[in-house]
Amino acid sequence: MLTTIIATSGYLGRKYMGKDEESKKTIKTGLAVCLNISVSISIVLINKWLYTSVGFPNMTLTLMHFISTFFCLHVCQLLGVFSVKKVPLISMIPLALCFCGFVVLTNLSLENNSVGTYQVAKVMTTPCVLLIQYHYYGKSVNTATLLTVIPIIIGVILNFIYDIKFNLIGTAYAVIGVVVTSFYQVLVGEKQKELQLNSMQLLYYQAPISAIILFFPVLAFEPVLQLVYRSWTLAAIIPVVCSCLIAFAVNLSIYWIIGNTSALTYNMAGHLKFCLTVAAGFFLFQDPLSANQLFGLVLTLAGVVAYSHVRS
After folding, report:
1. In the chain, what's the furthest Cα-to-Cα distance?
2. What Gene Ontology terms describe what this protein does at the molecular function level (predicted)?
């Protein structure tokens, strides 16, 4: 009898301890998603302003993001937030290349397209991620999860189907960016599992390698000297610094979300961010919102809610 009681107590203890751990993980994931949404919207607006108003070179800003991310991580490492784990650097090169392509191409898409076009192109990352995971890694999702993706894609496209102004260069950047971004998101999750690294450890290696890769194209194709000797005002410097610091938060939150959930979950958070951007434009800036756009917004939100329910 005593043995039975002890065994039962142990089982219940493990059960409720497991629930506590699961609850903590859910809370952490929720906070990471909220952080990612807020900083992602902020960096889109800041970078768009830097490109259009300041004329800041795209790849140079991306390089500064990589360098600042590494230094922020190095400070975290010195403070004992995480420990560095030795891994073969050669295994990081594919991820670093994809990271360069992901950031550069999405920034070029933002620079050459309207924010609306930039956002609606990014939604195609979700089906692309599903295809990559299925084709290269043999991963498939259940029918219920797949069905939640459909209203999200339709909803986002409806939001901008009547007012997107395509240009050939911007469209090319957007399409290629979607493919590279999808590979990058899948690789982040796979590399974290393969190398047994957490988000900070993986980003600590990947950021400087990406910076080295991007350094030479920046020197070759962008006016670095003009940028150095330019007469800078405080009003121009502050957004650049903010962009670099926010980039660190964006990159870290991306890695954490994908590493602890999945690339698909990260994309769902992105679609929620998209809806919030449209809603904010309507309520704060009185941007016009047609019936089709409103229907698309509701459809997208319904898909996000359905996905959350299916995956919970």
Report:
1. 83
2. antiporter activity; nucleotide-sugar transmembrane transporter activity
Contacts of 268 (CB under 8 A, 6+ apart): 126, 152, 304, 307, 308
70 within 8 A of 208, measured Cβ to Cβ? yes
Instruction: Report the distance separating Cα 7 and Cα 224, nearest Å.
Output: 69
Contacts of 1 (CB under 8 A, 6+ apart): none
What contacts 265, CB < 8 A, 6 or more positions away? 257, 258, 311
Helix count and strand count (H, E) for the chain: 12, 0
CA pair distance 250, 241, nearest whole angstrom: 14
Residue written as tokens 């004992």? 80
Closest by CA to 265, choosing from 25, 57, 33, 19, is 33
How distant, in Å, are the alpha carbons of 126, 129, 211, 264, 304 from that of 145?
Answer: 12, 13, 37, 10, 10
User: Could you read off the pLDDT of 54-80 as tens digits, one per residue?
Assistant: 788 888 888 999 899 899 989 989 988
Q: Compute the distance between CA of residue 254 and CA of residue 53 in angstroms, rounded to an integer.
A: 28
Angle between helices 168-195 and 125-137 (to 10 degrees): 50
Rounded CA-CA distance 154/118 in Å is 16
Domain ranges of the chain: 32-311
Q: Which of 249-253, 256-260, 284-288 holds the top average pLDDT?
A: 249-253
Residue 6 has pLDDT above 70, yes or no: no
Residue 100 near residue 210, CB atoms below 8 Å: yes
Give the whole-angstrom CA distance, residue 113 versus residue 312. Answer: 36
Q: What is the pLDDT of residues 130-150, one digit of tens each?
A: 888 888 877 877 888 788 888
Measured distance CA(189)–CA(202) in Å, rounded:
10
Listing DSSP states for 153-212 in one string gives HHHHHHHHTTT----HHHHHHHHHHHHHHHHHHHHHHHHHHHHT--HHHHHHHHHHHHHH
